[in-house]
What we know:
Elements: E1 7-12, H1 23-35, E2 40-45, H2 56-63, H3 65-76, E3 80-85, H4 89-105, E4 110-114, H5 118-121, H6 129-140, E5 143-146, H7 149-159, E6 164-165, E7 185-192, H8 199-208, E8 216-223, H9 227-235, E9 242-244, H10 250-259, E10 262-265, H11 274-281, E11 285-289, H12 292-295, E12 305-307, H13 312-324, H14 329-343, H15 346-365, H16 367-371, H17 375-384
Parallel strand pairs: 1-2, 1-3, 3-4, 4-5, 5-6, 7-8, 7-10, 8-9, 10-11, 11-12
Helix pairs in contact: 3-4, 4-6, 8-13, 11-14
Amino acid sequence: xxxxxxxxxxxxxxxxxxxxxSGISTVVAGILAENSHHHxxxxxxxxxxxxxxxxxxWLWRQLMLTPRFLIFMLxxxxxxxxxxxxxxxxxxxxxxxxxxxxxxxxxxxxxxHYHGGKYMMEPPSPGSWLYRIIQTMLKGANTLLVLTETExxxxxxxxxxxxxxxxxxxxxxxxxxxxxxxxxxxxxYLGRIVTHKGIDLIAEAFxxxxxxxxxxxxxxxxxxxxxxxxxxxxxxIPGLKYxxxxxxxxxxxxxTMYAAEVFLLPSYFEGLPxxxxxxxxHGCIPLGSDDQAFRAVLSPPLNGLMARKGSxxxxxxxxSWLLDNKDKLAAMSKSAYDTIQTKYSIxxxxxxxxxxxxxxLDHERSKLFRNRHEPSDxxxxxxxx
Length: 385
């Protein structure tokens, strides 16, 4: 597809996996790798690095974020802004001024790309200051992107705005390896180590499976604010064979996902977890929660399993099922792999993204779009006059 070459400012935390373990960072790294031959990308870093402390230096950087953003846009002569965010309180407060600067000061089109977050499925109270900020952002952006159909419906219900569904994607992996499942089953947690990913549920589930711990191994990969707490909790489970492998990236990450057999992610809320898609892309069977993000991808027990959200007991039950049904795991692994190849291709994702860029730029150039009237508003205005 021929597209106009644009100068695109794209926001994300650091895309260096050694500095930040984040789904948004993984998504943006993929866009930069696969689409830089179509457009010129300028990465504007938002969010903290893993382990970065909230001190006076951090506070100064936050205060200077908006003026730095303005200068960055002017210096690089940006045509379009791809603003990656989530509906978490800190992200909302941080990103709203950036959107307003791009839209109303510099008159540049903004793609507001949401990656889940606490308030995506459980919005703040209508009339609260956070609700009003979210509504300002939703109604100000040229194009809204969400990860699932459920999220799109939620925005309509709670905010009266719609969005385009654009699920995350990964680069197709041509290499499928058949696993044998003839030893202890190897479970993997890979990603940001934070409470809402269900790390305490994982630990409690293993504690409840005391009599089955000889039948499994557990690997932990990643970084995050609850890392030490998680590892200390795992240390306190007698008989659990686990290994913390640090942050893995590139070939080491691929090797880890090939060597693992089940990927654990019993999250309380998600957008559409890149770590799950990456593991499925390597034939690693996902065991997630019944959150809407997993329901959008998984069809248990065909290509993965889903435990009841917030229930360590149900998670333990699903782990036991996997241990007892190893004869079914090869088919589940292949189905998980095939799901990615057919539905979550980065090639289709990039084609869709480039069309979105083109449409947003065309709309911003339209005077009708600048007035931001809905057709019903225009008809009512004409009738009143």
